[in-house]
Amino acid sequence: MKHTLDDATARKFAQIALGHVAKEYPNQPMHAMAGDEDTLTPRALHPAFFGSFDWHSCVHSWWLLLTLRRLFPSIPEAQEITALAETTFTEEKLAVELAYLQRPTSRGWERPYGWAWLLYLQLEASRHDDQVWDKRLEPMARFLAERLDQYLHILTYPITVGTHFNTAFALVLAGEWSRENDPDLLSRIESWAVEAFGHKQNYSGWEPGGDEFLSPVLTAALLVAEITPSEQFSPWFDALVLSNGWLERECKPVTVSDRSDGKIAHLDGLNLSRAWCLIRIGRKLSEEGAKQLLAARAKTHLSASLPHIAGDYMGEHWLASFALLALIESR
After folding, report:
1. Is the whole-model pTM more than 0.85?
2. Cys staple from 185: which of 31, 140, 178, 229, with CB 3.0 to 4.6 Å?
3. What is the largest CA-CA distance in the chain?
Protein backbone atom coordinates (compact mmCIF):
# COMPACT_ATOMS: atom_id res chain seq x y z
CA MET A 1 0.00 0.00 0.00
CA LYS A 2 1.22 3.51 -0.83
CA HIS A 3 2.69 5.71 1.89
CA THR A 4 0.75 8.69 0.59
CA LEU A 5 -2.60 10.03 1.66
CA ASP A 6 -4.45 10.50 -1.61
CA ASP A 7 -8.06 10.20 -2.75
CA ALA A 8 -7.86 6.44 -3.18
CA THR A 9 -6.43 5.88 0.29
CA ALA A 10 -8.91 8.32 1.83
CA ARG A 11 -11.80 6.50 0.20
CA LYS A 12 -10.55 3.13 1.44
CA PHE A 13 -10.17 4.39 5.00
CA ALA A 14 -13.58 6.07 4.91
CA GLN A 15 -15.27 2.94 3.61
CA ILE A 16 -13.69 0.85 6.35
CA ALA A 17 -14.86 3.20 9.12
CA LEU A 18 -18.32 3.73 7.63
CA GLY A 19 -18.66 -0.03 7.71
CA HIS A 20 -18.34 -0.25 11.48
CA VAL A 21 -19.12 3.01 13.32
CA ALA A 22 -22.81 2.05 13.23
CA LYS A 23 -22.22 -1.70 13.58
CA GLU A 24 -23.43 -2.63 17.05
CA TYR A 25 -22.17 -6.19 17.22
CA PRO A 26 -19.79 -7.75 18.04
CA ASN A 27 -19.28 -5.47 21.00
CA GLN A 28 -17.12 -5.28 24.13
CA PRO A 29 -18.76 -2.62 26.31
CA MET A 30 -16.51 -2.60 29.45
CA HIS A 31 -19.60 -1.55 31.38
CA ALA A 32 -19.75 -1.41 35.19
CA MET A 33 -23.23 -2.33 36.43
CA ALA A 34 -24.70 -1.04 39.68
CA GLY A 35 -27.87 -3.11 39.34
CA ASP A 36 -30.20 -4.97 37.02
CA GLU A 37 -31.32 -1.66 35.54
CA ASP A 38 -27.87 -1.33 33.98
CA THR A 39 -28.18 -4.45 31.83
CA LEU A 40 -28.64 -2.55 28.60
CA THR A 41 -27.51 -2.99 24.99
CA PRO A 42 -24.56 -1.01 23.60
CA ARG A 43 -26.91 1.18 21.56
CA ALA A 44 -28.99 2.02 24.64
CA LEU A 45 -25.91 2.81 26.69
CA HIS A 46 -24.15 4.78 23.95
CA PRO A 47 -26.54 6.00 21.26
CA ALA A 48 -23.76 7.95 19.49
CA PHE A 49 -20.75 5.67 19.99
CA PHE A 50 -22.16 2.14 20.08
CA GLY A 51 -20.29 0.77 17.07
CA SER A 52 -16.76 -0.29 16.20
CA PHE A 53 -16.57 -3.07 18.82
CA ASP A 54 -15.91 -0.65 21.70
CA TRP A 55 -16.54 2.96 22.66
CA HIS A 56 -13.05 4.37 22.17
CA SER A 57 -12.67 2.76 18.75
CA CYS A 58 -15.97 4.29 17.67
CA VAL A 59 -14.86 7.71 18.91
CA HIS A 60 -11.55 7.67 17.06
CA SER A 61 -13.13 6.17 13.95
CA TRP A 62 -15.38 9.22 13.92
CA TRP A 63 -12.24 11.36 14.20
CA LEU A 64 -10.97 9.56 11.10
CA LEU A 65 -14.21 10.16 9.21
CA LEU A 66 -14.42 13.86 10.02
CA THR A 67 -10.74 14.34 9.21
CA LEU A 68 -11.18 12.72 5.81
CA ARG A 69 -14.30 14.80 5.17
CA ARG A 70 -12.24 17.95 5.74
CA LEU A 71 -9.13 16.89 3.83
CA PHE A 72 -10.98 15.23 0.91
CA PRO A 73 -14.35 16.98 0.58
CA SER A 74 -14.84 15.83 -3.01
CA ILE A 75 -14.70 12.07 -2.43
CA PRO A 76 -18.13 10.39 -2.65
CA GLU A 77 -17.87 9.16 0.94
CA ALA A 78 -17.78 12.74 2.25
CA GLN A 79 -21.52 13.12 1.70
CA GLU A 80 -22.18 9.82 3.46
CA ILE A 81 -20.04 10.94 6.39
CA THR A 82 -22.00 14.19 6.63
CA ALA A 83 -25.36 12.44 6.59
CA LEU A 84 -24.36 9.89 9.21
CA ALA A 85 -22.77 12.53 11.43
CA GLU A 86 -25.98 14.55 11.35
CA THR A 87 -27.95 11.60 12.73
CA THR A 88 -25.20 10.65 15.20
CA PHE A 89 -24.13 13.94 16.76
CA THR A 90 -27.53 15.05 17.97
CA GLU A 91 -28.06 16.88 21.24
CA GLU A 92 -30.27 14.07 22.52
CA LYS A 93 -27.78 11.27 21.84
CA LEU A 94 -24.79 13.19 23.15
CA ALA A 95 -26.71 14.08 26.33
CA VAL A 96 -27.06 10.36 27.00
CA GLU A 97 -23.34 9.89 26.39
CA LEU A 98 -22.51 12.69 28.83
CA ALA A 99 -24.85 11.30 31.46
CA TYR A 100 -23.07 7.97 31.20
CA LEU A 101 -19.71 9.64 31.84
CA GLN A 102 -21.17 11.38 34.88
CA ARG A 103 -22.25 8.12 36.56
CA PRO A 104 -20.41 7.43 39.84
CA THR A 105 -19.26 4.09 38.41
CA SER A 106 -17.75 5.82 35.36
CA ARG A 107 -15.06 7.80 37.17
CA GLY A 108 -12.23 5.79 35.62
CA TRP A 109 -14.10 4.52 32.57
CA GLU A 110 -12.08 4.95 29.35
CA ARG A 111 -9.32 6.71 31.29
CA PRO A 112 -7.26 8.20 29.71
CA TYR A 113 -7.39 6.78 26.16
CA GLY A 114 -11.07 7.30 25.40
CA TRP A 115 -11.05 10.69 27.08
CA ALA A 116 -8.19 11.90 24.89
CA TRP A 117 -9.77 10.63 21.69
CA LEU A 118 -13.04 12.39 22.52
CA LEU A 119 -11.12 15.65 22.96
CA TYR A 120 -9.34 15.02 19.65
CA LEU A 121 -12.66 14.33 17.93
CA GLN A 122 -14.16 17.56 19.25
CA LEU A 123 -11.09 19.46 18.08
CA GLU A 124 -11.50 18.01 14.59
CA ALA A 125 -15.22 18.80 14.62
CA SER A 126 -14.36 22.46 15.32
CA ARG A 127 -12.60 22.61 11.94
CA HIS A 128 -15.86 21.98 10.05
CA ASP A 129 -17.24 25.48 9.77
CA ASP A 130 -20.33 24.36 7.90
CA GLN A 131 -21.55 22.26 10.85
CA VAL A 132 -22.26 22.59 14.57
CA TRP A 133 -20.97 19.17 15.59
CA ASP A 134 -18.24 20.70 17.74
CA LYS A 135 -20.79 22.68 19.75
CA ARG A 136 -22.79 19.52 20.40
CA LEU A 137 -19.67 17.62 21.44
CA GLU A 138 -18.32 20.46 23.58
CA PRO A 139 -20.13 19.56 26.84
CA MET A 140 -18.56 16.10 26.76
CA ALA A 141 -15.17 17.55 25.90
CA ARG A 142 -15.30 20.12 28.69
CA PHE A 143 -16.37 17.49 31.20
CA LEU A 144 -13.55 15.13 30.22
CA ALA A 145 -10.99 17.96 30.19
CA GLU A 146 -11.93 18.76 33.79
CA ARG A 147 -11.79 15.07 34.68
CA LEU A 148 -8.34 14.76 33.06
CA ASP A 149 -7.09 17.75 35.03
CA GLN A 150 -8.33 16.13 38.24
CA TYR A 151 -6.69 12.86 37.24
CA LEU A 152 -3.30 14.52 36.75
CA HIS A 153 -3.59 15.91 40.28
CA ILE A 154 -3.66 12.39 41.71
CA LEU A 155 -1.54 10.49 39.15
CA THR A 156 1.77 10.31 40.97
CA TYR A 157 3.58 8.22 38.34
CA PRO A 158 3.16 7.90 34.57
CA ILE A 159 1.66 4.70 33.25
CA THR A 160 4.12 3.49 30.66
CA VAL A 161 2.48 0.38 29.26
CA GLY A 162 1.87 0.13 25.51
CA THR A 163 -1.90 -0.21 25.75
CA HIS A 164 -4.92 2.00 26.48
CA PHE A 165 -3.67 3.09 29.91
CA ASN A 166 -0.58 4.80 28.47
CA THR A 167 -0.37 8.30 29.90
CA ALA A 168 1.87 9.99 27.34
CA PHE A 169 -0.20 9.12 24.27
CA ALA A 170 -3.34 10.52 25.87
CA LEU A 171 -1.56 13.72 26.86
CA VAL A 172 -0.27 14.27 23.32
CA LEU A 173 -3.85 14.26 21.98
CA ALA A 174 -5.27 16.18 24.94
CA GLY A 175 -2.48 18.72 24.63
CA GLU A 176 -3.48 19.51 21.06
CA TRP A 177 -7.07 20.09 22.17
CA SER A 178 -5.92 22.20 25.11
CA ARG A 179 -3.81 24.53 22.95
CA GLU A 180 -7.00 25.80 21.36
CA ASN A 181 -9.48 25.33 24.18
CA ASP A 182 -8.03 25.26 27.69
CA PRO A 183 -4.72 27.00 28.51
CA ASP A 184 -4.95 25.93 32.16
CA LEU A 185 -5.16 22.26 31.22
CA LEU A 186 -2.30 22.73 28.75
CA SER A 187 -0.16 24.20 31.51
CA ARG A 188 -1.04 21.26 33.74
CA ILE A 189 -0.11 18.77 31.01
CA GLU A 190 3.19 20.48 30.30
CA SER A 191 4.30 20.71 33.92
CA TRP A 192 3.20 17.14 34.60
CA ALA A 193 5.06 15.84 31.55
CA VAL A 194 8.29 17.59 32.52
CA GLU A 195 8.08 16.16 36.02
CA ALA A 196 7.30 12.65 34.75
CA PHE A 197 9.65 12.37 31.80
CA GLY A 198 12.10 15.29 31.72
CA HIS A 199 14.78 13.44 33.70
CA LYS A 200 14.57 10.16 31.76
CA GLN A 201 17.61 8.86 29.87
CA ASN A 202 19.33 5.71 28.61
CA TYR A 203 16.15 3.78 27.83
CA SER A 204 16.54 0.01 27.85
CA GLY A 205 12.98 -1.23 28.28
CA TRP A 206 11.57 -4.57 27.23
CA GLU A 207 9.31 -3.40 24.41
CA PRO A 208 7.68 -4.64 22.34
CA GLY A 209 5.25 -6.40 24.62
CA GLY A 210 3.07 -9.07 23.08
CA ASP A 211 -0.16 -7.03 23.05
CA GLU A 212 1.10 -3.45 22.72
CA PHE A 213 -0.07 -0.93 20.14
CA LEU A 214 1.91 1.99 21.58
CA SER A 215 5.61 2.38 22.25
CA PRO A 216 6.12 3.42 25.88
CA VAL A 217 9.33 5.29 25.10
CA LEU A 218 8.34 6.89 21.79
CA THR A 219 5.00 8.18 23.11
CA ALA A 220 6.83 9.73 26.06
CA ALA A 221 9.43 11.21 23.71
CA LEU A 222 6.73 12.66 21.48
CA LEU A 223 5.03 14.26 24.47
CA VAL A 224 8.32 15.87 25.52
CA ALA A 225 8.97 16.95 21.92
CA GLU A 226 5.62 18.75 21.85
CA ILE A 227 6.49 20.92 24.85
CA THR A 228 10.25 21.40 24.53
CA PRO A 229 12.27 23.71 22.23
CA SER A 230 14.28 21.84 19.62
CA GLU A 231 17.64 22.91 21.03
CA GLN A 232 16.71 21.29 24.36
CA PHE A 233 14.83 18.32 22.96
CA SER A 234 17.56 17.03 20.62
CA PRO A 235 20.16 16.33 23.35
CA TRP A 236 17.46 14.88 25.63
CA PHE A 237 16.33 12.48 22.91
CA ASP A 238 19.92 11.56 22.11
CA ALA A 239 20.52 10.64 25.75
CA LEU A 240 17.28 8.68 25.83
CA VAL A 241 17.49 6.32 22.84
CA LEU A 242 20.15 7.38 20.32
CA SER A 243 23.52 7.38 22.05
CA ASN A 244 22.87 4.00 23.66
CA GLY A 245 21.90 2.50 20.30
CA TRP A 246 18.39 1.48 21.36
CA LEU A 247 16.54 3.11 18.50
CA GLU A 248 18.85 1.80 15.79
CA ARG A 249 19.18 -1.66 17.35
CA GLU A 250 15.69 -2.35 18.74
CA CYS A 251 13.16 -0.10 17.03
CA LYS A 252 12.27 -2.35 14.12
CA PRO A 253 8.87 -3.47 12.78
CA VAL A 254 7.23 -6.15 14.87
CA THR A 255 5.77 -9.44 13.64
CA VAL A 256 2.04 -10.15 13.89
CA SER A 257 1.50 -13.88 14.13
CA ASP A 258 -2.33 -14.00 14.21
CA ARG A 259 -4.47 -11.07 13.11
CA SER A 260 -7.67 -12.79 14.25
CA ASP A 261 -6.49 -12.55 17.86
CA GLY A 262 -7.56 -9.18 19.22
CA LYS A 263 -4.55 -8.72 21.49
CA ILE A 264 -1.91 -9.92 19.04
CA ALA A 265 -3.52 -7.73 16.36
CA HIS A 266 -2.50 -4.79 18.55
CA LEU A 267 0.99 -5.19 17.15
CA ASP A 268 -0.07 -3.82 13.76
CA GLY A 269 -1.08 -0.73 15.69
CA LEU A 270 2.36 -0.61 17.26
CA ASN A 271 3.97 -0.44 13.83
CA LEU A 272 1.63 2.34 12.79
CA SER A 273 1.82 4.38 15.98
CA ARG A 274 5.61 4.07 16.06
CA ALA A 275 5.71 5.50 12.54
CA TRP A 276 3.53 8.43 13.67
CA CYS A 277 5.82 9.11 16.64
CA LEU A 278 9.02 8.76 14.63
CA ILE A 279 7.91 11.20 11.94
CA ARG A 280 6.80 13.85 14.43
CA ILE A 281 9.82 13.44 16.67
CA GLY A 282 12.15 13.64 13.66
CA ARG A 283 10.96 17.17 12.92
CA LYS A 284 12.29 18.34 16.29
CA LEU A 285 15.79 16.91 15.87
CA SER A 286 18.74 19.01 14.73
CA GLU A 287 21.25 16.31 13.73
CA GLU A 288 20.76 15.19 10.14
CA GLY A 289 21.87 11.60 10.69
CA ALA A 290 19.33 11.14 13.47
CA LYS A 291 16.57 12.65 11.33
CA GLN A 292 17.39 10.21 8.51
CA LEU A 293 17.39 7.25 10.89
CA LEU A 294 13.95 8.12 12.23
CA ALA A 295 12.57 8.69 8.75
CA ALA A 296 13.87 5.31 7.58
CA ARG A 297 12.45 3.55 10.63
CA ALA A 298 9.07 5.23 10.11
CA LYS A 299 8.95 4.03 6.51
CA THR A 300 9.69 0.42 7.39
CA HIS A 301 7.09 0.41 10.16
CA LEU A 302 4.44 1.79 7.82
CA SER A 303 5.30 -0.77 5.15
CA ALA A 304 4.90 -3.60 7.65
CA SER A 305 1.31 -2.85 8.66
CA LEU A 306 -0.39 -0.57 6.14
CA PRO A 307 -1.43 -3.61 4.04
CA HIS A 308 -3.23 -5.10 7.06
CA ILE A 309 -5.64 -2.43 8.25
CA ALA A 310 -8.57 -4.44 6.90
CA GLY A 311 -9.34 -8.11 6.57
CA ASP A 312 -10.13 -9.23 10.11
CA TYR A 313 -12.48 -7.29 12.37
CA MET A 314 -10.07 -7.48 15.32
CA GLY A 315 -7.86 -4.99 13.50
CA GLU A 316 -10.32 -3.53 11.04
CA HIS A 317 -12.42 -1.81 13.71
CA TRP A 318 -9.56 0.51 14.72
CA LEU A 319 -6.30 0.30 12.76
CA ALA A 320 -7.18 2.81 10.03
CA SER A 321 -7.19 5.63 12.60
CA PHE A 322 -3.56 4.96 13.46
CA ALA A 323 -2.66 4.62 9.82
CA LEU A 324 -4.23 8.02 9.20
CA LEU A 325 -2.28 9.61 12.08
CA ALA A 326 0.95 8.48 10.45
CA LEU A 327 -0.01 9.31 6.87
CA ILE A 328 -1.10 12.83 7.77
CA GLU A 329 2.36 13.42 9.21
CA SER A 330 3.91 12.01 6.01
CA ARG A 331 2.21 14.55 3.76
Report:
1. yes
2. 178
3. 61
